[in-house]
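ARCHIVE CARD
Drawer: 12
Card no.: 0347
Subject: one protein chain, sequence and derived structure
Cross-reference: see card 0346
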Amino acid sequence: MNQEKLAKLQAQVRIGGKGTARRKKKVVHKTATADDKKLQGSLKKLAVNNIAGIEEVNMIKDDGTVIHFNNPKVQASLSANTFAITGHAETKQLTEMLPGILSQLGADSLTSLRKLAEQFPRQYLVENFDEASKNEAN
Protein backbone atom coordinates (compact mmCIF):
# COMPACT_ATOMS: atom_id res chain seq x y z
CA MET A 1 0.00 0.00 0.00
CA ASN A 2 1.22 3.47 -0.72
CA GLN A 3 1.57 6.07 2.02
CA GLU A 4 -1.26 8.32 0.82
CA LYS A 5 -3.81 5.54 0.92
CA LEU A 6 -2.61 4.42 4.34
CA ALA A 7 -2.79 7.95 5.74
CA LYS A 8 -6.29 8.32 4.33
CA LEU A 9 -7.47 5.16 6.10
CA GLN A 10 -5.89 6.24 9.39
CA ALA A 11 -7.62 9.60 9.24
CA GLN A 12 -11.05 8.00 9.05
CA VAL A 13 -12.89 7.39 12.29
CA ARG A 14 -13.71 3.81 13.25
CA ILE A 15 -16.80 3.42 15.38
CA GLY A 16 -16.99 0.07 17.09
CA GLY A 17 -14.50 -2.76 17.21
CA LYS A 18 -12.45 -4.65 14.67
CA GLY A 19 -14.41 -5.70 11.63
CA THR A 20 -16.94 -2.87 11.66
CA ALA A 21 -17.38 -0.53 8.76
CA ARG A 22 -15.54 2.77 8.77
CA ARG A 23 -17.74 5.79 9.20
CA LYS A 24 -16.95 9.31 8.09
CA LYS A 25 -18.15 10.82 11.36
CA LYS A 26 -19.77 9.74 14.56
CA VAL A 27 -23.47 10.63 14.60
CA VAL A 28 -24.66 11.89 17.98
CA HIS A 29 -28.42 11.72 18.45
CA LYS A 30 -29.90 14.44 20.63
CA THR A 31 -32.92 13.63 22.68
CA ALA A 32 -35.95 15.87 22.77
CA THR A 33 -35.81 15.98 26.55
CA ALA A 34 -32.35 17.57 26.44
CA ASP A 35 -33.64 20.29 24.09
CA ASP A 36 -36.66 20.81 26.33
CA LYS A 37 -34.46 21.20 29.40
CA LYS A 38 -32.27 23.76 27.61
CA LEU A 39 -35.37 25.69 26.54
CA GLN A 40 -36.81 25.66 30.06
CA GLY A 41 -33.45 26.88 31.41
CA SER A 42 -33.41 29.76 28.95
CA LEU A 43 -36.99 30.67 29.81
CA LYS A 44 -36.15 30.60 33.52
CA LYS A 45 -33.39 33.18 32.89
CA LEU A 46 -36.01 35.44 31.28
CA ALA A 47 -38.19 35.13 34.41
CA VAL A 48 -41.29 33.85 32.61
CA ASN A 49 -44.56 33.29 34.46
CA ASN A 50 -47.18 30.66 33.70
CA ILE A 51 -50.48 32.02 32.43
CA ALA A 52 -53.36 29.78 33.48
CA GLY A 53 -56.81 29.46 31.96
CA ILE A 54 -55.93 29.61 28.26
CA GLU A 55 -57.96 27.03 26.36
CA GLU A 56 -56.64 27.56 22.84
CA VAL A 57 -54.06 29.54 20.89
CA ASN A 58 -54.34 30.27 17.16
CA MET A 59 -51.45 31.68 15.16
CA ILE A 60 -52.61 32.91 11.76
CA LYS A 61 -50.02 32.93 8.98
CA ASP A 62 -49.99 35.17 5.91
CA ASP A 63 -50.85 32.30 3.56
CA GLY A 64 -54.17 31.57 5.30
CA THR A 65 -53.07 28.62 7.43
CA VAL A 66 -53.57 28.52 11.18
CA ILE A 67 -51.33 26.90 13.79
CA HIS A 68 -53.84 25.72 16.39
CA PHE A 69 -52.87 24.74 19.96
CA ASN A 70 -55.56 23.12 22.10
CA ASN A 71 -55.03 23.50 25.88
CA PRO A 72 -51.45 24.79 25.59
CA LYS A 73 -49.02 25.72 28.34
CA VAL A 74 -48.45 29.46 27.96
CA GLN A 75 -45.59 31.28 29.64
CA ALA A 76 -44.87 34.99 29.32
CA SER A 77 -42.25 37.53 30.26
CA LEU A 78 -43.62 40.99 29.64
CA SER A 79 -40.33 42.70 30.43
CA ALA A 80 -38.55 40.66 27.75
CA ASN A 81 -41.57 40.80 25.40
CA THR A 82 -41.47 37.00 25.14
CA PHE A 83 -44.25 34.44 25.00
CA ALA A 84 -43.65 30.68 25.02
CA ILE A 85 -46.44 28.38 23.89
CA THR A 86 -45.94 24.65 24.30
CA GLY A 87 -48.26 21.78 23.54
CA HIS A 88 -49.62 19.75 20.65
CA ALA A 89 -49.94 21.93 17.54
CA GLU A 90 -52.09 21.27 14.47
CA THR A 91 -51.79 23.11 11.16
CA LYS A 92 -55.22 23.83 9.71
CA GLN A 93 -56.69 25.96 6.96
CA LEU A 94 -58.47 29.13 7.96
CA THR A 95 -61.69 27.87 6.38
CA GLU A 96 -61.67 24.79 8.67
CA MET A 97 -61.64 27.02 11.75
CA LEU A 98 -64.66 29.12 10.76
CA PRO A 99 -66.94 30.45 12.28
CA GLY A 100 -65.33 30.13 15.74
CA ILE A 101 -62.19 32.01 14.75
CA LEU A 102 -63.95 35.12 13.37
CA SER A 103 -63.70 36.99 16.68
CA GLN A 104 -59.92 36.46 16.71
CA LEU A 105 -59.26 37.78 13.22
CA GLY A 106 -57.67 41.16 12.70
CA ALA A 107 -58.14 43.53 9.77
CA ASP A 108 -55.46 41.83 7.64
CA SER A 109 -56.95 38.39 8.14
CA LEU A 110 -60.46 39.62 7.36
CA THR A 111 -59.31 41.07 4.05
CA SER A 112 -57.56 37.81 3.16
CA LEU A 113 -60.74 35.92 4.10
CA ARG A 114 -62.77 38.25 1.87
CA LYS A 115 -60.36 37.54 -1.03
CA LEU A 116 -60.70 33.82 -0.36
CA ALA A 117 -64.50 34.09 -0.44
CA GLU A 118 -64.37 35.95 -3.76
CA GLN A 119 -62.55 33.02 -5.35
CA PHE A 120 -65.53 30.73 -4.84
CA PRO A 121 -68.37 30.95 -7.38
CA ARG A 122 -71.53 32.57 -6.10
CA GLN A 123 -74.66 30.49 -5.81
CA TYR A 124 -77.95 32.21 -6.32
CA LEU A 125 -81.34 31.25 -4.94
CA VAL A 126 -83.21 29.60 -7.77
CA GLU A 127 -86.26 28.05 -6.14
CA ASN A 128 -88.63 28.80 -3.34
CA PHE A 129 -87.65 26.74 -0.30
CA ASP A 130 -91.00 27.16 1.43
CA GLU A 131 -92.74 25.25 -1.35
CA ALA A 132 -90.07 22.57 -1.37
CA SER A 133 -90.43 22.00 2.38
CA LYS A 134 -94.22 21.72 2.02
CA ASN A 135 -93.77 19.09 -0.67
CA GLU A 136 -91.42 17.09 1.56
CA ALA A 137 -93.93 17.17 4.41
CA ASN A 138 -96.63 15.64 2.18
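Annotation on reverse: Helices lie at 3-11, 32-45, 94-97, 107-119, 129-137. The first strand starts at residue 13 and ends at 14.
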